[in-house]
Design a protein that fits this description.
The chain has twelve helices and four strands; from the N terminus they run H-E-E-H-H-H-H-H-H-H-H-H-E-E-H-H. The strands form two sheets. The chain has a two-stranded antiparallel ribbon.
Length: 398
């Protein structure tokens, strides 16, 4: 499984270089990062080509209007808004990449050192990384199949380049999401190791019988040293999480908006298929099946992304719960060990782990529930507006 994780990470790195999201070179053996003219040229050329093709595509006749020949004007507005926001969000995410290139290089170096010091973290996040890689790959492959099948009668070199430019936006988003996912998974793996060490310290402290003997004092001093070292490791890890959130906050906002609009557009698209039915009439059966499978994998990918962060926050909360067990210790514990526990708990209380985005919201289960509720509400409002103001072709003909 570890070798499979390494292959997934290598492929993700190559995909990042291919899409230009990673605009610097990484030595996969030593972990050393560096600016190179080749990496800069490849990334810049890729981005210019993608957005150049998109601009050229928008200045010409829109192929989507041919597909929606029985649709209403609301479809044009909805999907035009979604496409515009998608392009803008990807553009802003790439601007963040270029403006913070040194920051991302330092961030990668920090995670590389974290892995070098704690290689065991991979065994606690390998299943998540492999699942994420598999799900994203299948979803993107199905999307390519659906696009090519829908345009099969109009395919040309020009149209193929336009499709490539559109699909490249999805690829760029997937690379950014995967990088954040792997980083959060590694932090979660490190938290698991910290919790195991803290569990051992707490268990040993609970078993102590206070007395004035030299062995007892020596044992307490040893536990206090271990706890102070663990507290320092947790503080460094939390600082790394904060640096990660700061570096990715602009991209996270863009990704949340893109995911939100994609889900909204997909819900409306499914409703439109059932109401108008014109898009799927001339398509082979495997195309709607691929579209449904893509939607399922897309939802599963969203679920993986969300719960990856939830599990990280849960691991931090578990650490707080272990520290709370210090109140069960026998009275008369060594003063230095008591101070070490109290300082650790006070530092966590003064500096709680919060994943804040520009101070606008705090990422967690409550925020995700609010976003899901808002998505459901806006989807229903959009469908209700369509039902009240537009008729199907059968009603028009009669």
């Amino acid at each position: 499984m570890t070798d499979l994780v390494k292959w997934c990470l290598k492929i993700a790195y190559g995909y990042g270089r291919l899409t230009g999201v990673i605009n610097f070179e990484i030595d996969l053996k030593t972990g050393q990062t560096q600016f190179t003219r080749r990496a800069t040229l490849i990334a810049a050329s890729t981005h210019v080509l993608i957005f150049g093709l998109l601009v050229y595509h928008t200045l010409r006749r829109n192929v989507v209007t041919v597909i929606w020949r029985y649709a209403n004007s609301l479809h044009d507005y909805v999907f035009l808004v979604i496409a515009a926001f998608r392009v803008v969000c990807v553009f802003l995410a790439l601007v963040s990449r270029w403006s913070q290139r040194r920051t991302f290089m330092r961030l990668f170096n920090s995670f590389w050192r974290l892995y070098q010091r704690n290689p065991a973290i991979i065994q606690y996040c390998r299943r998540s990384i492999v699942s994420k890689f598999f799900c994203a790959t299948i979803a993107e492959t199905l999307q390519v199949i659906v696009f090519l099948a829908m345009m099969r009668n109009q395919l040309s070199i020009t149209l193929a380049l336009r499709i490539w430019a559109v699909l490249s936006l999805t690829a760029i988003l997937n690379v950014i999401i995967t990088q954040y996912f792997v980083a959060a998974a590694c932090v979660r793996g490190r938290y698991v190791l910290l919790n195991k060490d803290l569990q051992a310290i707490v268990s040993e402290s609970q078993s102590l019988i206070p007395n004035a003997g030299g062995v007892y004092v020596t044992k307490c001093c040893c536990l206090a040293d271990r706890l102070e070292s663990l507290a320092k490791s947790q503080s460094d890890l939390q600082q790394l999480v904060e640096n990660l959130s700061t570096a990715y906050q602009g991209e996270v906002v863009c990704l949340v908006i893109t995911y939100y609009l994609n889900m909204l557009g997909t819900a409306y698209l499914v409703f439109s298929f059932s109401k108008y039915g014109s898009l799927g009439n001339n398509l082979p059966l495997f195309v709607p099946l691929c579209a449904i499978a893509h939607f399922i994998f897309y939802l599963f990918d969203c679920w993986l992304n969300a719960f990856n962060v939830f599990y990280l926050l849960d691991a931090h909360d578990k650490l707080l719960g272990l520290l709370g067990r210090r109140t069960l210790f026998q009275p008369g514990l060594d003063h230095r060990l008591e101070v070490a526990f109290e300082n650790f708990a006070l530092n966590l209380a003064r500096n709680p782990l919060k994943l804040r985005i520009y101070g606008l919201f705090e990422y967690g289960r409550a925020a995700s529930f609010a976003v899901g509720n808002s998505l459901l509400t806006h989807s229903l409002l959009l469908i209700q507006y369509d039902v009240q103001n537009f008729k199907t072709m059968d009603n028009i003909n009669t």
